[in-house]
Amino acid sequence: MNSNKNIIILKLGGGLLTDKNKPFSIREEVVESAIRQVIKANEKLILIHGGGSFGHPLAKKYSISQGLDNSIPNQILGVAQTHHSMNRFNTYLINQFLEQEYPVLSIQASSIFIKDSEVTSTKSLDVIETALDLNLMPILYGDIILDKQGSFSIISGDQIILALCQNLKDYNISKVVFAMESEGLYIVDKKNSENCKLVTECYSNELDSLNLADLGQKIDVTGGIKSKLDFIRTICKSKIPVQLINGLTEGNIYKSLRNQKVNCTNILIND
Ligand code: IP8
Questions:
Q1: Which of 56, 146, 230 gets mutated to test ligand 1 (max ligand atoms within 8 A of its CB)?
Q2: Using CB atoms within 10 A as the burial measure, which of 72, 138, 193, 267 is most buried?
């Protein structure tokens, strides 16, 4: 049963925090600014981060999201390396919080989620809820996920968010914020098709009918913008609004966490 304990889920996109084209490269100033804003906002939240250049190149090299394939040399080693690489990236973020004496707890998705063919399940999210009770901010990240059918895959930050939206018991998620590298969704301007216009507000059931502008979004192993829209629709079905913000604009993360006005895309839920 949901009590009145409200939290926000914030995802810091991997493309925001790292240079996806250069393996193992952290955009240090972006990370530092994001962490500073999270600490300053000091809201109860679960932080999720993506894989960026620590996850996607390795996951792609070993085709991890396609599952076990004995024809791929060293694929199992690749699973271990992908997990470890994400762990290293996560440790970098955790260290920054701890240096500022902000209590955070790293939780590995590969330890609390398992797949059985297409279904992702978890025995319990108690560890996350108990951490929240203790004001210990849980940080989860895109990871590898094992499959009971003797295989494995990738669990993206977005999949983790969805699982949290559907399974947290004692916390009410007031919104999910995706900090990305653009203000949100852009549509082709009807008056001038050369231009595109930011969608500042739209209902989740309107997402399908948007004439989205192609901003050349990079496709990653977990699906890029199309799959993000599918996740957003499903999150909204749990009656949770979604906000897409530009994490590169100084102050946006803080403002969003404090519910201040941000130039961004707000996806509202239908009653
Ligand atoms: O960046 C992917 O997480 P995402 C994680 O949230 C890996 O899609 C390991 C590629």
A1: 56
A2: 267
